[in-house]
TrEMBL record:
Molecular function via GO: orotidine-5'-phosphate decarboxylase activity
Pathway of action: Pyrimidine metabolism; UMP biosynthesis via de novo pathway; UMP from orotate: step 2/2
Organism this protein belongs to: Oecophyllibacter saccharovorans
EC number: 4.1.1.23
Pfam families: OMPdecase
Keywords annotated in UniProt: Decarboxylase, Lyase, Pyrimidine biosynthesis
Task of the protein: Catalyzes the decarboxylation of orotidine 5'-monophosphate (OMP) to uridine 5'-monophosphate (UMP).
Catalytically driven reaction(s): orotidine 5'-phosphate + H(+) = UMP + CO2
Protein name: Orotidine 5'-phosphate decarboxylase
The protein's assembly and partners: Homodimer.
Phylogenetic lineage: Bacteria, Pseudomonadati, Pseudomonadota, Alphaproteobacteria, Acetobacterales
PANTHER family: OROTIDINE 5'-PHOSPHATE DECARBOXYLASE
Length: 250
């Protein structure tokens, strides 16, 4: 797993030079995590450690992995600005490549988050890229409506995405369905990190707004995030290789 060389697409409104693959290591078992990370060495561009791994295996285990691999630390912080900023400050020693907060936490929360990272890293390329999660890929219009958002997922992603980038986010987590509109609204530099990815023929599980790796790459994803289609495959390394081949030929 090499550190990412390219950041974002090169030409306005078109796909990045290469859409990179992140494997989500969603497990509570440190041995299983180690097995998967070893199996995926050289096959994926980064690994994602999220709530399940970090809460079960601990921050030190995450730190150990981040010292050896490019890590997307996905803890989706969402609290008052002061608390989120302090939480992010505590995460800085891990030096993740990417990390997440919720865009719906609001402008000040995002701005304070960016400030903390800027203070810790200055303009160093090691500064973790701050991603704002827009509308979870497990949500559809009915789900949004139920929580009092009378907009389509696309409208809400664009609304939150514009605000988050203005406030200082380097990128957004969105579904592949919103990439084209986000690129039109925000241009080529913004990092678009896209979960809800399912290779053709695989089950959606709890994901609602899904697309294939090739569709996401053609739309202009900077990164795709794939969990169960890799981690629950009989041969995770082969599953990752097939996805990389699909991305390369998209
Ligand atoms: O922030 C994320 O990574 C994320 C945001 C989102 O809207 N949807 C989403 O699925 N994710 C994460 O992406 C991964 C998707 O896993 P699979 O559905 O197993 O491919 C999980 O680790 C989720 O936590």
């Amino acid at each position: 797993m090499g550190l990412p060389q390219e950041s974002g697409p090169g030409i306005k409104g078109v796909a990045p030079a290469r859409t990179r693959l992140i494997a989500a290591i969603d497990t509570a078992d440190p041995q299983r995590a180690r097995f998967l990370i070893n199996a995926l060495e050289g096959k994926v561009d980064a690994i994602k450690l999220g709530l399940e791994f970090t809460y079960s295996c601990g921050f030190d285990a995450a730190r150990e992995i981040a010292a050896r691999h490019p890590v997307f630390l996905d803890l989706k912080l969402h609290d008052i600005p002061n608390t989120v900023a302090a939480g992010l400050k505590a995460l800085c020693p891990l030096k993740p490549v990417l990390t997440t907060i919720h865009a719906s936490g609001g402008r000040e929360m995002i701005a304070r988050s960016r400030e903390v990272l800027q203070e810790a890293f200055g303009d160093s390329p090691e500064r973790p890229r701050l991603l704002a999660v827009t509308v979870l890929t497990s949500m559809d219009a009915a789900g949004l409506n139920e929580i009092g958002v009378p907009a389509s997922p696309l409208e809400q992603v664009i609304r939150l995405g514009k605000m988050a980038v203005e406030a200082g986010a380097d990128g957004l987590v969105c579904s592949a369905h919103e990439i084209t509109a986000l690129r039109e609204a925000l241009g080529p530099q913004v990092e678009l990190v896209v979960p809800g990815i399912r290779p053709a023929g695989s089950v959606a599980n709890d994901q609602k707004r899904v697309m294939t790796p090739a569709q996401a790459a053609r739309a202009g994803a900077s990164w795709i995030v794939v969990g169960r289609p890799i981690t629950q495959a009989e041969d995770p390394a082969r599953a990752a290789t097939l996805i990389q081949e699909e991305l390369a030929s998209a």
